[in-house]
Amino acid sequence: MRICGIKLTHDGAVALVEDGKLVFCIEQEKRDNNRRYQAIDHLESVVSALAEHGLDPRDVDQFVIDGWDGDVESQFQVLSGMGPITLKGAPYVERHAEGLLTSLDGSGLMLDGRLFSYRSYPHVTGHVTSAYCTSPFAKTGQPAFCLVWDGCIFPRLYYVERRGARFLECLFPVIGHLYAAAGHHFGPYKRAGRDWDLGIAGKLMAYIALGSVHEDIMAVFQELYQKRFAGDTELASRYSADINGAELSLAAVHDFFEASALRLLDQAPEDVLASFHVFLERLLVSEMAAAVERHAHLSGARNLCIAGGCGLNIKWNSALRETGLFDAVWVPPFPNDSGSAIGAACSAMVAQDGFVPLEWSVYSGPALLDGQLPSGWDSAPCSMRELASILASNKPVIFLTGRAELGPRALGGRSILAAATSPEMKDYLNDVKLREHFRPVAPICLEDRAPEIFSPGTPDPYMLFDHQTRAEWRDQVPAVVHLDGSARLQTVSRTSEHKVAELLIEYEKLTGIPLLCNTSANHHGRGFFPDAAAACHWGRIEHIWSDGVLLTKTPATEPSPVDGALTLV
């Protein structure tokens, strides 16, 4: 049974599941140096993704389109061939508590000149199914709670068992965009207007390390939250009545921050944002604890899956894990909409077979392409030991190997790697990436040594939890230590067959240090490099390793070490 899942809107992607195994997931932003969050606006992208894996649309047994905005149904305007077509889809949220797997059946999906029928499940269904089916709980048949918190919905709690899933409740009346909207009213990303930027939330998580948390600031947010969203007030009642309108709910969010700003004129923006982050964290934790207590009658292990865009907030994930409410907490590497095509395919699989486990690998993205290398680059075979020696000499390397990782974070398949021993390396990497200097650079570390360097240092292969760098290591690996001492750690097992594990082992042999800096290899504001040629054209790092071959930029613009520092010339 071949099921093709399609996400048409932002974070567009095509995924194929065959007999319970993920064959591939091709995110649009990872093709042709596309912009981040790229949508699918032409159905040729679906045909091309299938063709790259030797398949024709006629080889697919079922197509599934992820649902989107709408109370009853959604609509998509896309191109097929030379003309536009309109497709209907399921709504964003299921229409009743037991309706998670209720599909909308459609026709008119035009692929390669032929019409195909399709199904569409609510958008949240894909989040629930992708999170649970990729989890360790699915493998053991254990039930789990599933928290879904996306930008335009309240945090929604579900309960999943092998035979089905059902909606339990909304935890509190705040949409996920509230967090990003805070950055539009305070701090370096403050702007006029009432739109939002999908990239702001991640940047805020870095920026708040500059600030301090103040209880009096949180008291202001608590008071206005009760008055405008949750309390027994006219404003809150009006908000609840209008919540199904995205524009009205966003307007209420901006009104909330405008009222907050008037009360916080004398406060530093970094303190305001740090305090707001903790205000939402405490709200999430307290309401989750109350919900678990309300549903204590549900049998089985206390497990939690986290999905939706807010699942990328590593500090909130860690706070939920540290409550002790759950035996285990699982966050897939694609909790945001980058996993929605997988979720669409999983929804059809679940509708047929129940909540069974999906066989999958995080390295199921596009394969490296063969591109024409520009002039000005030398190439030579390069072993892992030789590459480790280059890194040990304080020179960063673009590391490209195999198929790209799924989700928004570089996990060693499309990475820029560097030694973490120089405090200047973080600033250097932020310079070449055109990022603000307060942004952290993540460590990629051998799993068995992570507890020695980080707290808790538990296995975290997808960078989804918060870790503190232990005091005795902060001076040894300063480039991966954030302003608040934290690190967005990625762990790699020594037994992993991925090439980055072999490199870390060789680097450890040379230096005694089991970790490197790891940041994504991409043009600013775009997805991962699809091939070595794209990295060469970018040209801001002089060494590129691509599946056994080292490309070295001939001297023209070279990094200049000065007392261990790196300078862009």
TrEMBL record:
Cited CDD domains: ASKHA_NBD_NodU_N
Designated name of the protein: Nodulation protein NodU
NCBIfam families: nodul_NodU
Domain of life: Bacteria
Ranges of residues in domain Carbamoyltransferase: 2-346
Pfam families referenced in this protein's UniProt entry, alphabetically: Carbam_trans_C, Carbam_trans_N
Similarity field: Belongs to the NodU/CmcH family.
GO MF term (any one): catalytic activity
Domain Carbamoyltransferase C-terminal per the UniProt entry, residue ranges: 388-536
InterPro entries: Carbam_trans_C, Carbam_trans_C_sf, Carbtransf_dom, NodU/CmcH_Carbamoyltrnsfr, Nodul_NodU
